[in-house]
């Protein structure tokens, strides 16, 4: 048995095998604990953060840092008893969280370190709308280009004014919103266009229909049609490459577009897709079937797995040997989102794909993407570097 110190609290704790921890004292709520571990079988550093209550349990999370990659680890702190509480920790898997708790774990607005759930959503909408308006005012725009027969099946294309479009890399963005939030669309998804276009890129924001009006299968086919049209545009303009990106549910869609054998609709030349930026993505949809999100999605667990990038990672990897894929998460993303991103990045890397896992400090699920409107933001610089600009 090894001993380690909690640097934030000064309390001594001990560690046993199989990830059982006994804390000498219960940590105070709303405090963060950096814990250095000497045990050889587990990652070396953990950050314990209080996240909320459920019944008789406090929920704490350990952000595990190992080989530059952060994964979420669940702990349960018993409220019963005196100063001594048993904490059991382990890497979170889909089945390790009770079904009744999954709504909480997959509600990113409840994990922000900056503000409350409703406030952070309202602030997010305000910020991306502001950034998208700036793109309209500042850049040359080709608006409402239809790729299908419904109102949301449109895309907007942005370039820097008076700059040659020929040869420019094309950055494609798919918005999030759990495939159902109508306040998100192409109209407020061009907020990153100014710094990327100023660097020399063309930026395209893509809209798509939402559940429950259409199924997720239909959304995926719509996005494939959009990518087919973008590939055609890239060939016409002799683009040096197409780079797919997306946030949350949009990262799920972008990841699926990295394979060319997903459905019978396979008319585009995927060789032009040179890379991707997948931000705070959903790569295993199965947990959502146990949440209120599924009221709109209406997926069985089997359907959710069929539509999950993690179930198709072999095909994605085969098609992505020539690509560079960035997977990014916010420091204050929900641990489940961090876990899924970490597993997706590792799965691709283990299959020979060039990847980067970027853990963006002091960001949550929302401002990790909205800050792409800032030229000096870490992830903006990574996008520009990815495109060779």
UniProtKB/TrEMBL annotation:
UniProt xrefs under Gene3D superfamilies? alpha/beta hydrolase (3.40.50.1820)
- List keywords of the entry alphabetically: Hydrolase
* Top-level taxon of origin: Eukaryota
Q: Which GO MF terms does the UniProt record name?
A: arylformamidase activity
The UniProt record lists the Alpha/beta hydrolase fold-3 domain at: 171-365
The entry's protein name is Guanine nucleotide exchange factor vav2
Species per Swiss-Prot/TrEMBL record: Plakobranchus ocellatus
């Amino acid at each position: 048995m090894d001993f380690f110190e909690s640097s934030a609290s000064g309390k001594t704790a001990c560690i046993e095998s199989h990830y059982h921890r006994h804390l000498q004292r219960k940590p105070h709520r709303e405090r963060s604990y950096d814990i250095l571990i000497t045990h050889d079988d587990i990652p070396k550093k953990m950050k314990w953060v209080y996240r909320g209550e459920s019944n008789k349990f406090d929920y704490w999370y350990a952000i595990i840092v190992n080989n530059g990659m952060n994964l979420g680890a669940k702990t349960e702190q018993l409220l019963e008893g005196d100063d001594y509480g048993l904490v059991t920790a382990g890497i979170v898997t889909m089945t390790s969280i009770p079904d009744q708790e999954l709504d909480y774990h997959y509600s990113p607005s409840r994990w922000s370190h900056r503000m409350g759930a409703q406030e952070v959503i309202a602030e997010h909408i305000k910020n991306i709308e502001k950034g998208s308006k700036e793109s309209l005012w500042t850049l040359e725009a080709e608006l409402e280009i239809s790729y299908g027969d419904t109102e949301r099946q449109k895309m907007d294309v942005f370039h820097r004014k008076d700059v040659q479009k020929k040869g420019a890399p094309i950055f494609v963005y798919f918005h999030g919103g759990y495939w159902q939030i109508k306040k998100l669309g192409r109209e407020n998804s061009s907020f990153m266009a100014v710094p990327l276009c100023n660097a020399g890129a063309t930026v395209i924001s893509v809209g798509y229909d939402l559940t429950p009006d259409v199924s997720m299968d239909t959304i995926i086919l719509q996005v494939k049609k959009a990518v087919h049209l973008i590939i055609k545009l890239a060939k016409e303009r002799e683009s040096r490459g197409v780079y797919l990106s997306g946030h949350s549910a949009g990262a799920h869609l972008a990841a699926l577009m990295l394979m060319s054998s997903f459905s019978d609709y396979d008319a585009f030349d995927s060789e032009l897709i040179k890379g991707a930026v997948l931000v705070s993505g959903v790569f295993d949809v199965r947990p959502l079937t146990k949440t209120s999100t599924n009221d709109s999605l209406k997926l069985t667990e089997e359907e959710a797995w069929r539509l999950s990038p993690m179930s198709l990672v072999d095909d994605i990897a085969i098609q992505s040997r020539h690509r560079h894929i960035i997977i990014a998460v916010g420091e204050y993303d929900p641990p489940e989102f961090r876990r899924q991103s970490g597993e997706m990045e590792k799965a691709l890397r283990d299959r020979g794909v060039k990847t980067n896992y970027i853990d963006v400090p002091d960001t949550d699920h929302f401002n990790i993407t909205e800050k792409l409107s800032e030229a000096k933001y870490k992830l903006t610089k990574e996008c520009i570097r990815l495109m060779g600009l």
